[in-house]
Amino acid sequence: MEMEEMDRILCDEQLEEVLRLLPPRSTFSPSTADVSLVSKRWLRLYRSSRSTLSLRLSSGNCTPQALYSFLSHFPRLSHLLITIFPDHLPSSVASSCPPEPAQLCLQPNPGLQEVELWCCGSIVNDILTRLLENCTSLNSLLISTLLIGEVGRERLLQFITHSRCNLRKLYLRLPRALGDNHLLAVAEKFSGLLSLRLESCPSVSHEGLTAMALAMSNNKLEELALIDCHMEPGLLTTLGQSFRNLRKLDLSCNDKLADEEFISMLASFNCLKELYVRGCAGLTNASVVSMFESCEQLETVDLLSCDGIEAEAVELFVLNCLRLRQIYVEESKLSDVSRSWASKKFIEVIFR
Asked: What is the pLDDT of residues 226-242, one digit of tens each?
């Protein structure tokens, strides 16, 4: 059937349904015509039929106003991915930016529920304002960004303190922005949090982390990550007392972790299923023994780059951790006995 004839026969609703069934453009073969170029009518209906959209933009040519104006042509979007590549950044700044470009992921309807922001730039400030004004259904927020400045720090605090959403998941990687006041605001505002991940936050103090943990002691937090944070003595004890329902704990890249307090903390985590201590050079074999003795539900553990943990402890762990399904460890620390038992118990061993 010729395009003109199809265009004449099909009403808007029928053509829109046909367009909705087409695969995403990224999966099209090179020989597949771009239906949005057939006519203005097809372009309009193609846009209105899309539930997913991916954009790749340059920060120098992207303004919030132009972006939101363009998105208004896609009324049925449930998943939006915007990639904004930073340009004209000083080399010293560019090298410290996250490896991912700026991304904004929105999903699904009704109402915006999940947002991810990865970027180096101040556009985050405007997006946070939009989220505060319009997104009451938001339940998951990830922000990983640099260079948001004092305005960005204040904008983030305003979002936290004045938000009308009920966040369940929060992941913050803000090396130059996150402070103790943000953490206390999170603890006071989002009492329903199930997952909290903090990464590379040097401006957050040990006192700030401790105060946050105490303020959240009544939460039913199931997942906690404190990656490359200030882990001073006393914090692990507070974590053990405050978050007894944890299912997943990530303390990677904290070289100040020590056996005594770590072992004491594990005694409180009877429900723990995933434990990540990659790069925690202060832990030794004693901590590994405590893992399988205290955490009988453990299924996944990451022991990579833990210089104080030896092959003998890994062997004991593989033999005695009854529910283990996945372990990250150096190949050099895996004995023949460990390999044999891992194979018999269908344990996946990951060396990277």
From this structure: 999 988 889 999 999 99
Helix (H, G, I), strand (E, B) or coil at 169: strand
Q: For residues 254-283, b (16+ Cβ closer than 10 Å) or e, as one string? A: beebbbebbbebbebbeebbbbbbbbbbbb
Q: Which amino acid is at 341?
A: W
* Rounded alpha-carbon distances, angstroms, from residue 324 to 30, 72, 276, 330: 45, 49, 13, 17
pLDDT band at 292 (very low <50, low <70, confident <90, very high): very high
Token code pair at residue 241: 């007392």
Helix and strand totals (H; E) in the chain: 14, 13
- 187-190 contacts at long range (C-beta below 8 A, 24 or more positions apart): 187/211, 187/212, 187/215, 187/216, 188/215, 189/160, 189/161, 189/163, 190/160, 190/166
Task: Read off the DSSP letter of residue 268.
Answer: T
Look up residue 271 and give its DSSP letter: T
Do residues 146 and 175 lie in contact, with contact meaning Cβ atoms separated by under 8 Å? yes
